[in-house]
């Protein structure tokens, strides 16, 4: 097969760690584009900065492979060497299979063209994968030993430098950043004087200050600062070990601890005062756990998805409070107003009655014509897959915001568990639907119908806790739209499971 179109894949080599990422990639780019131009090949460049082995952490490679699989536009992949694609044997096998199945050759900088459909070429590629994987592991071992030796000497080897410090390349130690250290001292003083972490983050953002990565402060980033003993000059290094794509805490005996190894930014007395207040705040019970109402955890803001809290007031009785979520940067509150609790309950029971009647009709039709279920099953699976994609995208955004300090720990605690719960429910539902027979479906409908009738018939005698449990078993969430200047009348949308 003639080669006309190639995908150039660039990734920094560990052998060139003396160069910057940009310099290393530029060298590779010049070499590979010259080869493509010399052979009159049309090319598209996929450029990766980083040295991760895993496909999951290399977005450009994933795009390239997707193009190979779905667009069929490349005759070959042009790389500096085969191991630029991957040194991980599992990933390498997957990559080679995709290229082989789509008849895409590999061209390396030395001019060798590998046809993966040729048994001899494929065998040699497998041998190179084995040696590359071994080389990677040896390099990794040497890097780990080097980091441990540096840590024992007190040299900074824990990645990102904490806000308020700068890394000294000559000594390998941390020096005080005189421009940023005052921010740290101000945060400690504000917390010691009674200001909460969320309001400290708002104040810092309002003043134009930013965190170590240039991102706005959040409650979590403030808590990370006030509990970090680095600001006393102490450091515990080698606390975590990478396991796949996550980090796990090492056993305490493997930690490398140094007292007063770096210059302190805050005084010991201030630091200890802050720790005492922080520990006392942690011991306070969560108000949300104090009691359960019939609608606890079910009613969410239609504009920012925050759970609406329930409160009992002397004159109005129970009410759903207005949304109090505040934008981290602007400090502006969400203006989705609250509503009387009974108004929501009235809408809930009205919709429950309609849903119960609809379910009874569905059961009757299904008993008359069981083939109807096969069509509804396909539609339900399609809808579930669509919901799953939406939830997964939302979880990715939530994780990104939390890791970049755009969400506080409280906000993460409110948003993520609900989304994870929804995802688990959808995954479980997909499995169930795939396995369900018509008789299973009828049994499921009857079970839901029984729950609905139990709620409708026994509303007055069920405890708040039992009613909340039953409602949560049939309702995914209740969405409230009551935003000032947007909603003329409050709107309540009930999403059934």
Automatic annotation (TrEMBL):
Pfam family, one: Recombinase
Residue intervals of the Recombinase domain: 162-284
Coiled-coil regions, chain positions: 374-401
Keyword Zinc-finger in annotation: no
Keyword Glycosyltransferase in record: no
Highest taxon in the source lineage: Bacteria
GO molecular function: DNA binding; DNA strand exchange activity
CDD domains named in the record: Ser_Recombinase
Protein name according to UniProt: Recombinase family protein
UniProt keyword terms in alphabetical order: Coiled coil
Domain Resolvase/invertase-type recombinase catalytic positions: 5-154
């Amino acid at each position: 097969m003639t080669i006309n179109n190639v995908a150039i894949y660039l990734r920094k080599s560990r052998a060139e760690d003396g160069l910057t990422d940009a310099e290393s990639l530029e060298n590779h780019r010049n070499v590979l584009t010259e080869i493509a131009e010399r052979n009159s090949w049309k090319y598209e460049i996929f450029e990766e900065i980083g040295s991760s082995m895993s496909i999951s952490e290399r977005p450009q490679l994933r795009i390239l492979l997707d193009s190979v699989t779905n667009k069929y536009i490349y005759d070959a992949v042009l790389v500096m060497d085969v191991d630029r694609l991957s040194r991980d044997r599992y990933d390498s096998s997957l990559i080679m299979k995709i290229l082989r199945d789509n008849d895409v050759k590999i061209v390396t900088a030395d001019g060798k063209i590998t046809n993966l459909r040729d048994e001899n070429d494929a065998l040699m590629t497998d041998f190179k994968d084995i040696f590359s994987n071994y080389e990677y592991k040896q390099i990794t071992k040497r890097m780990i030993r080097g980091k441990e030796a540096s840590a024992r000497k007190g040299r900074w080897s824990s990645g990102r430098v904490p806000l308020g410090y700068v890394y000294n390349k000559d000594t390998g130690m941390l020096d005080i950043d005189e421009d940023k250290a005052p921010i740290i001292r101000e945060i400690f003083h504000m917390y010691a004087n009674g200001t909460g972490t969320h309001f400290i983050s708002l104040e810092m953002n309002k003043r134009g200050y930013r965190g170590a990565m240039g991102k706005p402060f959040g409650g979590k980033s403030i808590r990370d600062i006030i509990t970090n003993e680095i600001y006393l000059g102490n450091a515990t290094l080698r606390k975590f070990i990478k396991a796949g794509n996550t980090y796990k805490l090492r056993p305490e005996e493997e930690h490398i601890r140094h007292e007063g190894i770096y210059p302190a930014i805050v005084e010991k007395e201030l630091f200890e005062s802050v720790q005492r207040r922080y520990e006392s705040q942690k011991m306070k019970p969560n108000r949300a756990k104090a009691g359960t109402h019939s609608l606890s955890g079910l009613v969410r803001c239609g504009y920012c998805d925050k759970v609406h809290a329930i409160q009992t007031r002397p004159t109005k009785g129970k009410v759903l409070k207005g949304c109090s979520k505040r934008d981290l940067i602007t400090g502006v509150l969400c203006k989705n107003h609250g509503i009387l609790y009974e108004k929501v309950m009235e809408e809930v029971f009205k919709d429950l009655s309609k849903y119960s009647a609809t379910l009874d009709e569905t059961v009757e039709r299904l008993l008359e014509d069981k083939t109807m279920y096969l069509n509804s099953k396909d539609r339900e699976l399609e809808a579930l897959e669509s919901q799953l994609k939406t939830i997964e995208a939302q979880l990715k955004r939530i994780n990104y915001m939390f890791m970049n300090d755009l969400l506080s720990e409280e906000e993460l605690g409110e948003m993520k568990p609900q989304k994870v719960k929804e995802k688990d429910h959808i995954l479980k539902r997909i499995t169930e639907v795939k396995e369900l027979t018509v008789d299973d479906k009828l049994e499921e409908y009857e079970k839901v119908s029984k729950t609905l009738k139990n709620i409708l018939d026994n509303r007055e005698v069920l405890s708040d806790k039992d009613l909340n449990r039953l409602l949560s078993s049939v309702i995914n969430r209740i969405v409230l739209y009551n935003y000032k200047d947007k909603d003329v009348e409050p709107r309540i949308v009930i999403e059934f499971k």
